[in-house]
Each structure stands twice: as C-alpha cells, then as structure tokens.
C-alpha cells in the first residue's frame, strides 16, 4: 500500500464526511466517511453512501460477524465481541 501522508501541525483539516478525495488521505478503503467520524453518514447502513462504499462496509461487517463480532449500527468501524469471555473486567496495564 502507498505510504500514508503525515499530518503536519497547522495543516488544513477537512470534514470527515466529505468524499474520500476531499478528506485527509488515510490510505484506507473508502467506507463513505473517515474512521471515528460521528456524522450520520457513518451509520453502517446509511443510504447516502455509494455502492462501493456500501460493499466495503458489508465486506467488513460480514468478516467481523463470521468471527464472532457484532456491529454497532451507528459506526461502521465499531464492533463488540458477542461472547466476551470477561464482560465485567476492565484491563488496565501497559502493553509493550
């Protein structure tokens, strides 16, 4: 994959819901919005996205569901393990 562009302090920012060619390039598949964009276009089944963006989201969703994850329908990138083995445990430790 091509190298992702570095963000430079002071560089102009663009709305995360703009078309991919107008957003900051993050070197990812076009999912219709940028990652962590909390606009309604980020809803997994939003009808305002194009066919390719929908196909990309459905591919991610099908692969994640195949491996036991459930999608949060308001964020195409947000998944939770269905059978979480430690549902009431919060892990707080350094990972090296």
Mind explaining what this structure looks like?
This protein has a domain of 62 residues. The protein contains one helix and two strands, in the order H-E-E. The mean pLDDT is 91. 17% of the residues lie in helices and 6% in strands. It has a two-stranded antiparallel ribbon. With 96 residues, the protein is of the alpha+beta class. Strand 1 and strand 2 form a beta hairpin.
List the helices and strands and how they pair.
Layout: H1 51-66, E1 69-71, E2 79-81
Antiparallel strand pairs: 1-2
Task: Provide a concise account of the structure shown.
The protein has 96 residues and is α+β, with helices and mostly antiparallel strands. The protein has one helix at 51-66, and strands at 69-71, 79-81.
Question: Which descriptors apply to this entry?
Answer:
96 residues, alpha+beta, two-stranded antiparallel sheet
Q: Gap between N and C termini, in Å?
A: 26 Å
Radius of gyration: 16 Å
* Uncertain parts: none
- Biggest beta sheet attributes: 2 strands, antiparallel
Q: H/E element string?
A: HEE
The residue-averaged pLDDT reads: 91
Q: Give helix % range.
A: 10-25%
- Beta strands, count: 2
The strand order across the widest sheet is 1-2
Please state the structural category.
Answer: alpha+beta
The number of helical runs is 1
Shape: globular
Strand coverage percent? 5-15%
* Subunit organisation of the chains: single chain
